[in-house]
Amino acid sequence: MKIIVSSIFVQDQDKALEFYTETLGFIKKHDVPVGKFRWIALVSPDKQDGTELLLEPNDHPAAKEYQMKISADGIPATMFGVEDIHKEYQRLLEKGVKFTMKPTKMGENTIAVFDDTCGNLIQIIQK
């Protein structure tokens, strides 16, 4: 068994698609209409056959509440790995990304947290 899709709730699928592709650099793999929403799945540019990130609309009241509460408590919705966290931090700052935590050493890892503009905090990690 393996993970093939992981979801993240977003407030606006179009805004999320723009942020996750143009700012973060993910590649759109699927964009299929499903009722009033879309099945939008992204992949890493260096692993296009890898795990897909689904931009899931937070239309359900429980999804909205979950997203709002974890964000308010400073809990990241997901984590992405990076090769050089300081380089990635600088690249994202230059693109206007707002960080809630600068790169911080935590044991053998370094993490940073940013706002994805779609209702989530996202953690990046360099192992």
Automatic annotation (TrEMBL):
Coiled coil: none annotated. Pfam families: Glyoxalase (PF00903). Residues 1-127 form the VOC domain. InterPro entries: Glyas_Bleomycin-R_OHBP_Dase, Glyas_Fos-R_dOase_dom, VOC_core. PANTHER family: GLYOXALASE/BLEOMYCIN RESISTANCE PROTEIN/DIOXYGENASE (PTHR36437), GLYOXALASE_BLEOMYCIN RESISTANCE PROTEIN_DIOXYGENASE (PTHR36437:SF2). This is VOC family protein. It comes from Cohnella boryungensis. The lineage of its organism: Bacteria, Bacillati, Bacillota, Bacilli, Bacillales.
